[in-house]
Amino acid sequence: MTGALYALFTLTLLAIVAWLIRLALGEAERSDATRMVGFLALFAGAAWLAMAGFYAPLEKVQGLPQKIFYAHVPCWPPAYLGFALTAVGGIGYLVSRKEQWDHFALAAAEVGIVFCTLGLITGPIWAKPIWGHWWVWDLRLTSALVLWFVYVAYLFLRGLTFGSDTARTFTSIYGILGTAAIPFVYFAVDIAKGSTLHPSNPARAGLPAEMSQTLAVGMLAYVLCFGYLAARRLEIARLDERLLLRDLQGGA
Fold first, then answer.
1. φ/ψ (deg, to 5) at 26
2. Which of 10-24, 180-194, 211-225 has the lowest mean pLDDT?
3. Per-residue pLDDT band at 2 (split at 50, 70, 90)
4. Phi and psi for 199 in degrees, rounded to 5?
5. Residue 252, C-beta contacts closer than 8 angstroms, at least 6 positions apart
6. Which helix (H) or strand (E) holds 137?
7. Which of 40, 79, 89, 227 is a Cys-bridge partner for 115, taking CB atoms 3.0 to 4.6 Å apart?
8. 7: burial class by Cβ within 10 Å (0-12, 13-18, 19+)?
9. Rounded to an integer, what distance in angstroms lies between the CA atom of residue 179 and that of residue 36?
10. H-helix or E-strand containing 180?
11. How distant, in Å, are the alpha carbons of 23, 94, 103 from that of 98?
12. Nearest CA-CA partner of 106 in 167, 147, 35
């Protein structure tokens, strides 16, 4: 069952990526599919909460605070996904010069930052009762914070340089280069070689079946939520574009 859940998560992630790209390019229906993804996210989220609360056992050493693990770890796949898709949108824009790709990059970055922020918030909540500190400057935590700043800066740059083709080109390149931080964050524990308080990556930690299954369902719920939020953000971008065009035509 555990392997099947992780396979389902992987297939869902790939399906969400393909659907969002088609949505950005206007090749897929919006409202009905978006609502369906939203309902699936709600269903998976309810299952995840029930599993985290009643199915996954208490960890013997950490006790109840360890339950935050099921909220913290699933934040990172959609955060990484959002930043990776920012690069995809940037590449698409640089190649085609189509604004749809630029909208796609912005939507992915904004939703990615939401999940990265949640990861940075839930981590200290878990750390305080276990380590005795809200924050320590070890390599994993520091690199995750740097990743967050990289993409917050991306949004600030977009706000300061709104509108021109040169600005879109610059922010597209910046969004592409920013993805270099992702593998550094993911492998920070391995790079630190034991000099970090942060635990190893759970996928390689050999979790008990109940914990691993709960984690997989949480990751599935979060990725579905990412897809729903990104789709809604793309709809807002389209509405903004229509309003801007209407204002320009009215002014003419």
1. 75, 20
2. 180-194
3. confident
4. -70, 165
5. none
6. none
7. 79
8. exposed
9. 30
10. none
11. 14, 8, 9
12. 167
Mean pLDDT across the stretch 26-43? 84
Question: In 3-state terms, what secondary structure has residue 67?
Answer: helix
3-state helix, strand, coil in the chain (%, to 5): 80, 0, 15
Beta carbons within 10 angstroms of residue 97's beta carbon: 12
Nearest to residue 70, comparing CAs of 54, 55, 57, 52? 52
Average pLDDT over every residue of 19-37: 83
Share of the chain above pLDDT 70, in %: 86
Alpha-carbon distances of 31 from 28, 37, 42, 101, rounded to whole Å: 10, 10, 16, 20
Is the pLDDT at 164 greater than 80, yes or no? no
Q: Identify the residue whose tokens are 């971008």.
A: 237
Cα atoms found within 13 Å of the Cα of residue 33, Cβ hemisphere only? 15
Torsion sign (Cα): 145, 147, 152, 157: positive
- pLDDT-derived band at 142 (thresholds 50, 70, 90) equals confident
Q: CA 157 → CA 32, 105, 151, 154, distances in Å?
A: 34, 13, 10, 5
Report whether pLDDT(66) > 90: no
Global pTM reads: 0.90
Q: What whole-number distance in Å separates Cα of residue 206 and Cα of residue 20? A: 33
3-state secondary structure of 63: strand
